[in-house]
Amino acid sequence: MAVTQHPPRARGRSSTGSLLHEPPIVDRTWERAAILNQLLLGSVVFVVGLVIVVEGSAPNPPMFFGGVVAVFSLTGATLIIPWNRLRYGWVAVIPALDIIAIALMRVAMPDSAMGLLWVFPALWLAGSFGLIGLAGVVIGVTMLIVFLALTGTTGTRHATILLPLAILAVAATSYLNTRRSQAQRSLLDKQAQLLRGVLEHSRRQEQEVTEVLDAVDFGVIRISAGGRVAVTNEAHARLQMATNGDGGASHVPAFRDDGVTPLPLAELPLERALRGEAFENQVVWFGEEPDARQALSVTARRLTGSGGKNVGAVVVSRDVTNELSALRARDELVASVSHELRTPLTSILGYLDLAIENPETPEKVRANLDIAERNAERLLRIVADILTASSSSSSSIEASIAPRAVDVRELLANAAADMATHAESRALTIDVTGLEEATAWADPLRLRQVVDNLLANAIRYNKYGGTVYLGSTTDGTSTWLLVRDTGPGISDDDRTRLFQRYYKAGAARRTGTGLGLAITRDIVRAHGGELGLHTSVGVGSTFIVKIPAAPMETDA
Question: What is the pTM assigned to this prediction?
Fold first, then answer.
């Protein structure tokens, strides 16, 4: 089979032009194709000539071996001539001269099958020079057959017809195979170029992502589907150095978010993420006092591929040491100041009570003292709220709860009666027609505190002349308390932060401490319940409290 040669092409890197000026690669395709094709023909002719010499069957030895010598000479010339330095097409001279040399061998032995050797140059020309080479094969072989037929050296009539047809068929097959090979090679080149572009684009994206990850101040870890750490950024390395010290993570004690309870190795965020867990904002303290300590907030998210297949996870860690230290310092300061305020306020209230109860106190003075007492009591409640909110956890609230069966309808009715005077001052109506028989398993004082906070807000932020609706119901397992107003409602932005401590929503809610709803939610959660909110701007707000109606299993 002849070796097909293709025109040389310029070689370089991708379209980015990063390495377009590298030294050119020498293409020796023509030279190799010429040598291989000619060596193949020369080898066959050598074997045929050797057989003829042994048998001594050549009728015209000088002409026969003249053709053999011509083939050998062309083979030697093929090995010597630098075809890559010549213009494309000059190499066609070799197969053309091979056709003539084979013709000499055919004339010398007319009854032999020497004409089949024309197949080799025919394959070469048709495969390497396309339609021009195929046309040249057809014309050249046909002219030689006609010439031999005229000179009477073609042998049988069938051989005269069959031989050119066979050579033509072989040459056409070589041409078609070459075209198919060239089309496949062109397609592969286009695919390779496309892949190079995609690879270059992916590398640029990877570099950009790496630079972005290294620029942020939070640690990022990419975990593969096999549970192996695949990618980390510089911030993660800095955080690891800060938490690991010089001896590794095993030498740095870890604690839970309270900074006191030791955290087992199996519950470290990275260990949990490697096991396939997903979690958010796990706070871990590293180090113990009096040494320097660092707190990290860690979040792990699972990644899914096509079809919901697990492809790993991403772990993000953030240094929250300064943030938590500032919050703790603020709570300690607020608790200290509030505690110092309670003693003088208690004393003030005691003396005010004595002055009010003194029969010698004039009525006008007693009225003023009543106002002072109400404001002092209000100030004392604010101090109590601040002390409750300053606790770092809800454990203090949970410890102060003594649950028992509570008549919710009676509790709501009493709260409404106590707030009636305050509601009348704003021409508000408190609607209690929605109260149904319901029992809750709760601390009556704490539950009354929840209702008072919600009812006070419904009155304070309602529109003048509006209505406050109270409701209660139960299904035997859970009990619901409802407080609805006809006020301006709460916007979406304020709603997301409404239960944060010290937050005051909207211009109309700038009064107060911003602690009422936060404390209310903590109390409800301490009972094992939930506090929900439904609101529409311009329509009003509805707070729904859900608490157990009977003792839970843990309380039994």
Answer: 0.43
